[in-house]
Design a protein that fits this description.
The protein has 218 residues and is an alpha+beta fold. Helices cover 24% and strands 35% of the residues.
């Protein structure tokens, strides 16, 4: 008896190829979806990280202010976004050296120049109080959706501006209790068909309220 070797028919080859193509397509689509999920997660983590860095910069300075030297303004240029303007206690110098911190009447409320507050007490020595212009710090969001830090003078003229974060959708500030500020920063970024959102919140204790016995109107 003669054994015949039977090969694959054309129909079987076509069916096998179709099944393999389907499996490869499913695998490629699953891999693409996993990659999209990973990229979206990575983008959201980047937004959260920039928010935390920006709020930490704000905290480093705002914590040295006092409730009556803080003003919250609703920005007209960016709807639903607050602007916070405040001053810090700055020691003055005299012919006999630095004036002690326990003399509130002789402490200048201003802003450290030219950039971030430095030193353990965050009270840089300046010229005599009566000889220095008063400066303010501002944190807010501009029309480019950048969270910024500004230094302005007593006439509200810009001295310096530094962007701290991008893609900012909202910045909200409240003073629920004397000596406490609550700030919330929300970033949004388009990723494909998704709108990714990262929200960060911080509670900041205003530790130098005791240095300012009387209210000051900014």
């Amino acid at each position: 008896m003669i054994n015949k070797k039977q090969g694959l028919t054309l129909l079987e080859v076509l069916m096998t190829a179709a099944i393999l193509s389907l499996l490869l397509g499913i695998g490629a689509h699953s891999l693409w979806q996993a990659n999209q999920v990973w990229n979206a997660l990575h983008t959201r983590m980047d937004l959260e990280e920039q928010n935390l860095r920006a709020l930490d910069r704000l905290r480093q300075e705002l914590q040295f202010s006092a409730a009556d030297h803080v003003e919250i303004i609703e920005q007209a240029t960016v709807q639903g976004v607050d602007l916070i303007r405040f001053q810090l206690p700055v020691l003055c110098s005299s012919g006999e050296g630095a004036i002690p911190r326990d003399h509130p009447a002789q402490i200048l409320w201003s802003a450290p120049l030219p950039s971030a507050c430095r030193g353990r007490e965050c009270l840089p020595l300046t010229e005599a109080c009566g000889q220095q212009d008063s400066y303010y710090l501002e944190y807010g969001v501009n029309q480019k959706q950048e969270f910024f830090r500004r230094v302005i003078d007593s006439q509200f003229r810009l001295f310096r501006e530094d962007p701290l974060a991008a893609n900012i959708h909202s910045f909200q500030v409240s003073l629920p209790a004397s000596g406490l500020a609550v700030v919330q920063l929300t970033a949004q970024k388009r990723f494909g068909q998704q709108e990714l959102t990262a929200q960060s919140r911080a509670e900041i204790f205003l530790r130098n309220s005791q240095l300012s016995p009387r209210k000051k109107n900014l």
